[in-house]
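Researcher: Here's the sequence for the chain we discussed earlier.
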Amino acid sequence: MEIKFYRISDDRRQLNKTLNASTLVKTATGNIKSDCSIMDPIIEMSYDIALMQCNYMYIEDFGRYYHIINIETGAQRLFIHAHVDVLQTYAEQIRDLYCVVARQEYENKSNLYLNDEIWKNLQIRQAVPLAFPKSFDKDGSFVFVTGGKS
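Model: Thanks. This is the structure I predict for it:
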């Protein structure tokens, strides 16, 4: 199977990784070791020193991206242990989701209209009577003014 090997510096929690010609180290063929899962594959390959610097890979047959966890060497062979990167693999489906973010790391961008037990909202009622500068007619009309901050 054909495998693309990358050297990336993006955070593991980032949705879109930087995968382009400058981060691509090598495209090579390898075999999956028997008795391993598609989520945590072990790839057996011929020894290549260029693959020792890689930390990311894409297996086209599986249609998944993987973080390289460990590389073992032995008898002119490489055994590459990897774990699936669900963020990059399903990035398009994640971006198409419609959802409400209840909490995030930035306090000033939180949605204050959502009830949250950790983030408390205070409701302060303030009523101030003010004298009206001109008199009203004697028919009982009144003026009600409200104001607030956003």
